[in-house]
Fold this protein.
Amino acid sequence: MKKLITIIGISVFIITLNACKKTDAEKTVSDVNNVIEEKDWEKLDKSEYTIQYPKDWTLDISGTGGTVFMMTSKLDSDTDQVTQNVNGVIENLPENIDLDAYAKAGLDQIKTVYPTILEKEKVKSENGDFYKVIFSGQQDGMKLKLEQHYRIKNNKAYVITFTSSIEDFDKDKVIGEKILSSFNLK
């Protein structure tokens, strides 16, 4: 009986120690948060909006692929196939389209290319309400995970998208969401 109590006591102690340890993923997210706070950031300031991004990312405002901006990171390693990026698209809307109707249409369109909708929610923000959608799928043989924010103002839809590989999304979303949340309409 004493042996059993000792074994149970040691087991509980080991389980408690393991429960208090951070996983590698938690360490990575924590490390990324620390790096984000220390980085210098650039600001894209346009007449309708502003958005901030890390200084070491590349900004493209050429209009490639119908975007008004695209920010891309460097590859994480030689084996990395997906460059994290954030892009923005502005769409003129008829007067009768509100955020909920636009989000529904956006979700219907997403499902034709990316069948897995992981999260969708309307978010109240001090910078105005927006619709957040996270989805995943394959494009050109790459497994991608994306977070998209929809905003509506003055009969225009602003769609801001963060893209990463499925494998790296949880690590990369820390910086991706910081960029997404820096988007402000004027």
